[in-house]
Specification:
It is built from three helices and four strands, in the order E-H-H-H-E-E-E. 19% of the residues are buried.
């Protein structure tokens, strides 16, 4: 059996990073988080928030993920309800 990597579940739109995220997060970690987010891997969200994201894939509403970079810094990836913008930011920038 051949396994295929499914394409994105979520359109990210334009991707932005806040100044704090750009200064503190390794670029490779951000790229991997964006890939995971677009495929429906919500990182470190609790089960209830994961379920809400899954529902919003089918309907509407903002979608959020939480990841921890290789340097130990926690960060968020947030996609707007209309899917036109995704922002990478630190918790204190929310």
């Amino acid at each position: 059996m051949i396994a295929f990597d499914a394409g994105p579940k979520l359109a990210l739109g334009e991707v932005h990073m806040t100044p704090g995220a750009a200064a503190q997060l390794p670029p490779d970690d951000v790229a991997e988080a964006l890939r995971r987010h677009s495929k429906g891997d919500w990182g470190e969200l609790d089960p209830g928030e994961r379920e809400l994201n899954d529902q919003r894939l089918e309907t509407t509403g903002p979608i959020a993920s939480i990841y921890t970079a290789s340097n130990g810094i926690k960060f968020y990836v947030l996609t707007e309800a209309d899917r036109t913008v995704t922002t990478v930011l630190l918790p204190e920038e929310y």
